[in-house]
From TrEMBL:
It comes from the Eukaryota. Residues 318-461 form the SET domain. InterPro entries: Gramillin-biosynth_MTr (IPR053209), SET_dom (IPR001214), SET_dom_sf (IPR046341). It comes from Aureobasidium subglaciale (strain EXF-2481). This is SET domain-containing protein. PROSITE patterns: SET. CDD domains: SET_SMYD.
Length: 656
């Protein structure tokens, strides 16, 4: 009697399981893409802040009605492989409790790991304050916050006995096996790579993964099998041609991943088998150029400036390294001494997206009908990491945690790029590097001579007289207060400076008024500014508010051809930007531009060019040439490198 009752109960449970699985498949195949990753409900249903020990344990049969189950915890385990229709759509599965009840589950929060690692089959989960809803295809549990779902390790007291004998989850995921295969292939350990791909394929079959993922794994394993047998296949012309095509494919894959050393090794092997292969010969020349860029940082920037984006060039980052910084977590440091104007790094973006207001139809790869650059670059990078797991570490290591609460705004962003190495540069208003862009690549040069071991800095907000509120912008956008030498100097007179900055913007004259009257007005303004900048803390840093008045005086005296005044205000302008002309000790007495906190700018180039054009009476003949060399060096520091110095010099000569 008892046996028959148990059999009926088992049949009833099995019928319910089959029904739920059918509803789950219907839900997965539903083409109405009405789910959005970050539902508005996240703001209305905050995460549970209580520890697991303070929550009441329930099972699926106690969910009953729609809404949150406050102060409760649900312990379940997935019974099949998870499904996700797109990176911005929820991850779905079916879970069971210790009494064999089953229910559909959806996870809505974003993740940096693949869907196969979330809600994986046979892991044990604790879901805090589960949200229960009756949907189109039956009841469903929804999870909106990462902290509300916890993977329980074996032996945890909340795990029911029914789950203790459950089969252990696979030690490695498909993601892990695929990454292991790629690493082995990069080192040309083809046997190990083939074994790893086979493990990934077996696991994909067992988990009933989607067809395209399984096909990708089979294709990759087939290519490796053909590559391993290239020596035997090269015995005949027909098979040799097949091997050439396969190896060219592998070369192209490595080339797209910017692994130029690997490309070089594969090309050498291909040319050793087929030395007259035209495609390989042509590609080897390109690879030689890329390796030269990667190792020596030698680029033809003017030519790159007219190339189409994305640029096909290697990144040069060998002179820099990422390490811990005493005051700012991590930073980028110079490994070797870099001279002023020298190339610090030139880097390809990890991801780049242009901003647009064009709407796009909803699809499985984009759950938003309209996305700004921030959203699109996020989607692009996630898909890039999914396709090439070995690249994940480079990007994810950028995140060192947050010390502030993120907020959502309606502010539209412009073109957005992520540069992994350059992103480690910390801020300083008197930065020691300048950045520019050629196509989609970032170019960073040294503002001054940088000794080995120096922390490399860049300016997030430019320190200019038309923007006196940079401190507030740094705090509002980047959540920190700058403590660079310039900010420390301005700290005691910030209110006076802001008032004077606005006065400078109103007072600097136009060329249409009487020049001598304008000179007098600007000189009065400079006397007033001198009182604010009288503190000795400004002795070695730029004086931002003085730059525009000095530039105005230079503009006013240039047409009057008063060489003495031009030299006076040219030298003053250099000082206001943090530079001084000094004479080196020794017999030669050469001129040298100094200024550890100097701010490179076109006005500095123009000032040095003026000193070369109007040398002081009785000066050495070499002085003009030395000033021009300094001007050229400064030009190389900050310009976008697409305009040559000769072109700029011709423009300056016309102005003068």
């Amino acid at each position: 009697m008892v046996k028959n009752k148990n059999q009926r109960r088992q049949r009833r449970l099995q019928t319910q399981r089959n029904k739920t699985l059918l509803q789950h498949r219907q839900k997965v195949n539903d083409r109405v893409k009405r789910y959005v990753l970050l539902s508005k409900r996240v703001n209305h249903e905050p995460p549970c802040m209580q520890p697991l020990e303070d929550l009441t344990k329930i099972d699926l049969s106690q969910l009953g009605t729609n809404g949150l189950k406050n102060d409760t915890v649900l312990v379940v385990r997935p019974i099949r492989a998870p499904v996700q229709l797109g990176p911005l759509l929820p991850i779905m599965n079916v879970v069971e409790d210790s009494k064999s009840h089953v229910m559909h589950i959806e996870v809505y929060f974003p993740s940096t790991i693949p869907s196969t690692a979330i809600l994986a089959k046979d892991i044990v989960l604790a879901i805090k304050t589960p949200t229960y809803e009756m949907g189109k295809h039956g009841p469903c549990i929804k999870v909106f916050h990462p902290s509300d779902i916890i993977i329980l390790e074996q032996g945890y007291e909340l795990i029911p006995k029914a789950f203790e004998t459950a089969p252990e989850s696979t030690s490695k995921s498909i993601w892990d096996w695929k990454e292991e295969a790629e690493l082995a292939s990069n080192h040309e350990a083809y046997s190990k790579a083939l074994d790893s791909y086979s493990e990934a394929i077996d696991l994909a079959v067992a988990n009933q993964e989607e067809h395209h993922q399984l096909a990708t794994l089979h294709h990759a394993r087939w290519l490796l099998k053909m590559l391993r047998s290239r020596s035997e296949a090269a015995a005949t012309k027909t098979s040799g041609g097949m091997v050439a095509n396969l190896m060219i494919q592998l070369v192209n894959i490595a080339y797209q991943e910017k692994k130029f050393d690997l490309v070089h090794r594969r090309l050498e092997r291909l040319l050793s088998l087929l030395p007259e292969n035209n495609q390989a010969v042509g590609l080897s020349k390109e690879v030689a150029s890329r390796i030269h860029e990667d190792q020596h940082g030698l680029y033809d920037f003017p030519a790159m400036g007219v190339e189409s984006v994305p640029l096909d060039h290697a990144s040069f980052t060998r002179l820099t390294e990422v390490r811990a910084s005493d005051d700012r977590g991590r930073g980028l440091f110079a490994r070797f001494k870099i001279p002023r104007g020298g190339l610090v790094l030139c880097e390809q973006p990890f991801g780049v997206r242009q901003s647009t207001t064009t709407t796009r139809p909803l699809s499985s790869s984009n759950a938003y009908t309209e996305c700004n650059a921030n959203t699109r670059i996020w989607l692009d990078i996630v898909q890039k990491i999914f396709a090439n797991p070995s690249q994940a570490g480079r990007l994810l290591s950028l995140h060192a945690g947050s010390e502030y609460s993120p907020s959502i705004t309606n502010r539209e962003s412009n073109t957005l790029s992520i540069f992994v190495q350059a992103s480690y540069m910390n801020h300083s208003c008197v930065q020691n590097t300048s950045r520019s862009f050629v196509g989609d690549m970032i170019v960073v040069r040294a503002n001054s001579d940088i000794p080995a071991g120096t922390k490399l800095t860049t300016s997030y907000v430019p320190a200019i007289s038309s923007e006196p509120n940079r401190h507030a912008e740094l705090l509002g956008s980047w959540h920190f207060e700058c403590a660079c030498p310039l900010c420390e100097s301005e700290k005691h007179c910030r209110d006076d400076l802001e008032e004077l900055f606005h006065k400078v913007a109103r007072a600097c004259p136009a060329r249409s008024i009487d020049p001598y009257m304008a000179v007098e007005e600007v000189n009065e303004l400079i006397k007033e500014l001198e009182k604010v900048y009288s503190d000795s803390t400004f002795d070695n840093v730029p004086r931002i508010g003085m730059q525009d008045p000095q530039a105005s005086l230079l503009d006013l005296w240039n047409p009057l051809r008063n060489h003495a005044r031009i030299r006076e205000h040219t030298t003053a302008l250099l000082r206001e930007r943090g530079y001084w002309i000094v004479v080196t000790s020794g017999g030669d007495g050469k001129l040298q531009l100094e200024g550890e906190c100097g701010m490179p700018h076109r006005t500095v180039v123009r000032a040095l060019h003026s000193l070369a054009r109007f040398p002081e009476t009785g000066s050495r003949r070499e002085e003009s040439r030395e000033y021009l060399e300094m001007a050229k060096q400064m030009w190389n520091v900050f310009n976008d490198t697409c305009i040559t110095w000769e072109e700029e010099l011709e423009t300056l000569d016309e102005i003068m």
